[in-house]
Amino acid sequence: MQIYVSQSVVRSGDGTRNHPFRFIQEAADIAQPGDIVIVAPGIYREYVHPAHGGTKDNPIVYCTTEPQGAVITGAEEIKEWELFNGDVWKVSIPNNMFGNYNPYTTILEGDWCIPGKINHTGEVFLNGKSMYESETLTGVEKPEVRKDSWDPEFSVYAWYTAQDMDNTVIFANFHGKNPNEENVEITVRRNCFMPLENGINYITVSGFALRQAATQWAPPTAYQDGLIGPHWSKGWIIEDCEISESKCSGISLGKYLQPNNNNKWTKTYIKDGTQTERDAVCQAVNEGWDKETIGSHIIRRCEIHDCGQTGIVGHLGGIFSIIEDNHIYRINNKHDVDGAEIGGIKMHAAIDTIFRRNHIHHCTRGLWLDWQAQGTRVTQNFFHDNTPPEGCEITNGLALGEDVFIEVSHGPTLVDHNIMLSDISCRLSTQGIALVHNLFYGSFSFVGEGTDNGGKRFQSCRYTPYHVPHSTKIAGFMTILHGDARFYNNIFVQKEIRQDLRDYVHSVGFESLNLYNFICGTKPYDGYPTREKYLATLKPMSGDFATPGENDRYYDHLPIYTGGNAFFNGAQPCDSEKGAYIENNHTVRIMVSEEDGQFRLHTNLYEYLPRSMTSMISTKVLGEAFEPEQLFENNDGTEIILDTDYFGRKRSIHPLCGPFEEGAGDRFTVAYPTMGGRAIYHHDKHRLEGRARKRISQREFSEVEPETSPWGDFETGPEGEGSWEAAEKEDEIVRVQADITMTGCENITFPYNGTLFQVQDIFVRGNTAWLRDMKTQKLVEVDCEYGIYSERKRWSVNSLQSIDVSRDPNMSGLAQTVGTLLCVLSKSMAHDPTDACKAISTRVNKALEPRITMRLTPKYLKFIQEKKFISLEDVIYRVKTAPIEPVTEIVENL
Q1: CB 405 within 8 A of CB 367
Q2: Are 487 and 562 found together in one domain?
Q3: Which of residues 860 and 627 earns the better pLDDT score?
Q4: Residue of 416, 463, 418 lying closest to 441 (CA atoms)
Q5: Which of 307, 398, 273, 338 is nearest to 115 (CA)?
Q6: CATH assignment at residue 504
Q7: Residue 322 maps to a domain
Q8: Is residue 328 included in any domain, yes or no?
Q9: What is the pLDDT of residues 797-828, one digit of tens each?
Q10: Is the domain of 103 the same as that of 63?
Q11: 647 DSSP assignment
Q12: CB count, 10 Å around CB of 115?
């Protein structure tokens, strides 16, 4: 059943297309498995708490007809402001407006929260941007710049709250703006979309904008609040949403309420946080925490920004999940929320969880994996600028930030094909890790440190659990010995470090190789044993258990494993590094630029990167993590083979170190200007973004009377266009991910299978090209390396960049070459294909030489540069002269 909701109606109906509900909650009260709630554009000021869940085969879907057109907000607009003094205005709000949760009497608090000052969960927003709370009215009348804010100029927009009888009074300094003429809102609701009960399973939330919730601090030892979240359920999908301005956390995949252990540390002080967290994990296991009932969520293509604590938070509830293609930025930039649970993503117990292709930047911390990162994989992510900006006052060590923080986990944790460009790449207070094919521009900090609770008189080691492989069953508890780390095929580039960062580290006394250092490379692992040296210490015991130091061998550092790493600009390997390539004769430059939301990586690295110095890395090479005795393998127990790069391109037998299999000149487009940072497929009449949207007309809602349908003619019969059955057939379309579109190819024609093939566009990725026939709209795939071709009749193409062939004779020559190869492979040549290949090779090689040589035969097309094979895509990058712009081609041959 389809249930319709529209804010444009005068009064609420019965949820049918012609008489839609006015509020989403009305639909949420009645939706059953298999139902789809279709929401029109508009602002929905409500808290949606689904009453029922779906099933795996029949989820309940909440979706919009216009991407982010339907806004669910926890805020209310306030227009009754009165001028109080100077630029300060005042408003008085009856407390009954807040129901049983008043964000302006609710103090932000919880385990590991470091308040520093009184802070409420409520917020005041000026034109969608949250202002800064002051502890006093004087602080509003005479606001001072907050030196620890990443946006100091706006930090003087201050507000203060007090209680007056049964009213909440708010004072705010709008600096000359009239709040009754601006968009001024205050948060009044704790959440935007979250069930009230546990176990509301299999819900999909697609395409909404969700913002402005008065969420509470979300530590792992309490019920974890979020602007949106499944509330201890299974099988949720949150996709294509914009999530912003949560006081604390945007999305919560977190822990359920354990009344006996809810912020117990800060409420009773009887047990410390580590002990209460161990208790919480064991209690969850005893109360049914397992793969069958919890987790397996998908968070994809969401834009998450401007939240106070985390973009995504979770403990226990995020197991077996996939978090991919999200764009997360400006998390904890105000620094009005401080503590040890902060980051773009902060996850405890991310068992068998995958974090891939996320773009995380300008956060106090990028990704923090705390405890039980077992079977966790972090792959193809782009991190940068997760360091306080210059001039920002750093208030504590956790606010210094890094791209990835892995803490007190036993692994196995695989970190591969990531770009980490912040001043500190990784904080590694952990073991059981493998870092493979990454680009590091920052250092490793807290290697061998940060795994106890800071006791001075007594031992305070943190014993954390490890699990039966691919399960939540606890196999044991152990402290962290450090080591058990693998570093293969990475690139380390030493960067210039700001003096203010060095000064801060020196001032707090953390300036050492095993605490805060700014040396890029594996240098902090100096002194760690190799596998051979470690095994040599494991000899039979003497038999005298009283012998001092007899058991030290079992508490020493575990071995490390290295190979295929390259070091530039003075980056330093550790003393046991094997096969390191060190290049200090040239300066490698790395820079990130942003144009219209498109992020590009500029570097000359690939001019100096060595070839054929590495081996393919796989489960067989990585082995198993020491404590859980679990292999670095896929979640289903199959072998991992790292044979594709950051872009998904196939790697060679001796892969290039770093995230990219081949350099693309001096510029890589590494994040794209779409929701969540990845391009979205389209179809002429239906969006192909998700199951729900296949059923929805692309016609926008309009201001209509209740009797008029705002959905247009969509359901046209069981097999009609727009029907559910017709939409399901869209799954048959072959989706092609290309990196480059070569347009303007209309003058390229050749015989093909008895007809004349007239090329319209050529799409390229690596050594694969797809040719689009202008007449028939067929798409023909050509594998240039192996000489294989095939036709695609129903297809869509997503391309990152485009080049106009008609503007560049070099590009035109390459396009003709690909066409010739298809022609000879299909044996459509009217004359000797060898002669045709020779002729076109001669012409194109004139444009490519002396840097690149082309070899075109009736079997394959290969390019050689400096005696190394490179792909067609790489050649295009090297010889292009036309500007490259984003493009998405939408085609289907019916």
Answers
A1: yes
A2: yes
A3: 627
A4: 418
A5: 338
A6: 2.160.20.10
A7: no
A8: no
A9: 877 777 888 877 888 888 888 888 888 888 87
A10: no
A11: T
A12: 15
Count: domains in the chain:
4
Render pLDDT for 223-259 as a digit per residue (tens, 0 to 9): 999 999 999 999 999 999 999 999 999 999 999 999 9
**Do residues 661 and 756 share a domain?**
no
144 and 177 in a common domain: yes
**Chain segment 137-177, per-residue pLDDT in tens:** 999 999 999 999 999 999 999 999 999 999 999 999 999 99
Amino acid at 83: L
Residue that finishes a domain, picked among 163, 187, 211: 187
Instruction: Give counts: helices (H), strands (E), the chain.
Output: 11, 59
Bridge partner residues of 669 (DSSP): 600
Cβ-count burial of 395 within 10 angstroms (0-12 exposed, 13-18 middle, 19+ buried)? middle
- Give dist(CA 303, CA 264) in Å, integer: 34
Q: Are residues 504 and 558 in the same domain?
A: yes
User: What are the tokens at 828?
Assistant: 């459509």
Q: Is 698 exposed, middle or buried (0-12, 13-18, 19+ CB in 10 A)?
A: middle
Specify whether 174 is located in the same domain as 199.
no
Contacts of 379 (CB under 8 A, 6+ apart): 354, 355, 356, 357, 414, 415, 416, 417, 418
CATH number assigned to the domain comprising residue 96? 2.60.40.1180
Segment 524-544 mean pLDDT: 85
Task: Return left, alpha or beta for 176; rule: phi > 0 is left, psi -120 to 50 is alpha, else beta.
Answer: left
Q: Are residues 723 and 764 in the same domain?
A: no
Residue 672: band (very low, low, confident or very high) from pLDDT cuts 50, 70, 90 = low
pLDDT at 719 over 80: no
pLDDT at 54 over 90: yes
**775 has a pLDDT exceeding 90:** no
Query: What pLDDT is recorded for position 802?
Result: 74
CA distance linking residue 571 with residue 521, whole number of Å: 5
* Residues 399-424 pLDDT 10s: 899 999 999 999 999 999 999 999 99
Calculate the average pLDDT of the chain: 87
Pick the last residue of a domain from 166, 187, 208.
Answer: 187
CA distance 140 to 134: 6
Q: Are 243 and 250 in contact (CB under 8 A)?
A: yes
Residue with tokens 């969006």: 687
List, as one string, the DSSP characters of 315-361: ESTTTT-EEES-EEE--S-S-SS-BSS-EEEEEE--TT-EEES-EEE
Altogether, the residues listed in the chain come to a count of 894
β-pair type (203-206, 60-64): parallel
* 717 pLDDT more than 80: no
Contacts for 332 with CB less than 8 Å, ≥ 6 apart: 307, 308, 309, 310, 342, 343, 363, 364, 365
Cα separation, 184 vs 178, in Å, equals 10
Same domain, 221 and 360: no
Residues 6+ apart with CB under 8 A from 349: 281, 314, 315, 316, 318, 319, 371, 372
Residue 327 inside a domain? The answer is: no
Residue 880 pLDDT more than 80?
Answer: no
**Structural domain harbouring 766:** 733-879
Q: At residue 698, does pLDDT exceed 60?
A: no
Cis ω before 850 (30° cut-off from 0) = yes
Residue 892 within any structural domain of the chain:
no
Asked which of 331-335, 503-507, 795-799, 812-816 is least confident by mean pLDDT, the reply is 795-799
In this structure, what DSSP letter does residue 461 have? Answer: B
CB 892 within 8 A of CB 885: no
> What average pLDDT score do residues 269-295 get?
94
Q: Residue 693: is its pLDDT beyond 70?
A: no
Which tokens sit at 321?
Answer: 């999940």
Q: Residue 376: in which H helix or E strand, if any?
A: strand 376-379
